[in-house]
Design brief:
The complex is a heterodimer of chains A (about 110) and B (about 190). Chain A has about 110 residues and is of the alpha+beta class. Chain A has one domain: Folate-binding superfamily (Folate-binding fold, 2-Layer Sandwich). The longest helix of chain A has 10 residues. Chain A is globular. Chain A starts with a strand and ends in a 10-residue tail after the last helix. The model of chain A has no long low-confidence stretch (mean pLDDT about 95). Chain B is α+β, with helices and mostly antiparallel strands and about 190 residues long. Chain B folds into 2 domains: about 80 residues, Gyrase A, domain 2; about 80 residues, Heterotetrameric sarcosine oxidase (Alpha-Beta Plaits). Helices cover about 20% and strands about 30% of the residues of chain B. In chain B, the strands form 2 sheets. Chain B has a 6-stranded antiparallel sheet with strand order 1-2-8-11-10-9. Chain B has a 5-stranded antiparallel sheet with strand order 4-5-6-3-7, with helices on one face. The longest helix of chain B is centred in the first third of the chain and has 11 residues. The chains are: A alpha+beta (about 110), B alpha+beta (about 190).
Amino acid sequence: MLILRCPYCGVMADETELVPGGEAHLKRSGPGSSDDDFEGYLFHRENPKGVHFERWRHSAGCGKWFHAARCTVTLEVFGTYPAQVTEPPQEIREAISSKRPGWSWREYE
Amino acid sequence: MSEPVSALAGARFDGFAKVEALPPRGMVTVRGDFESAALQAAVRSAVGIDVPETGRVLFGVGTAIAWLSPDELMVFCAYDAVPEIVVGLQNALADTHALVVDVSDARALFRVSGLDVREVLAKLTPADVSPNALGPGVLRRTRLAQVPAGIWMTGESAFEVMCFRSVAQYVFDILKGAAIPGSEVGYF
């Protein structure tokens, strides 16, 4: 069972209080983009064994979207952070680096 | 003017904890920027209580304000007092990006009381309902079995539960089931 700290409420929210929102930090390719970019935006997703970034919604609580960084192998949670960002914040990256040296995920490391 | 009717008027159950459906109560939702001085002043003058901190509920005389999310407050008051509070807030927030709506009839309220009341809640929610986590002044939004709900303490071994009106019967039934005599766990 995954337990994530909601960065807005500050409470430890059980997985069943949350709704998963898929991969985090997608970059939208909209009108005017190439077919390849649009296809990638719609369909291509990471499927990592290890560090992963996801979106979650505290649906039974404050109702807000937030991001979580976790390990898909051990379910270890490296941290959660608000959704008003376009890339993982520095402190989250440092927290991951201290536990998974040499990690990378998409263009981030 | 028609009479206000709560979802389950007068329903109650006496198990190892007591479950009661509460009569209609005024509820006003306020959305806006909590940092703005205009919103803070409006809430203070119309309700007489300050904007609560994250996850908290503050009680006044016959009123209360609960923090529901980073931009949403719930004002509790007497059912009759709603028009005055709504108008007061709307006038004070006329020039601010904010929303004030009377939602008194949108939700159902329950009171669960008794020495083992935390056990009733713990059977239904994944939230930490220990005295350390859910003490006086804390409002926890979580789920009860399959539906969202809000829980807060209103006194020594008494909690109030708020849920959407459409699931009032469901919430009453699961609270009743969790409070059936003989099903005490003895954890808290």
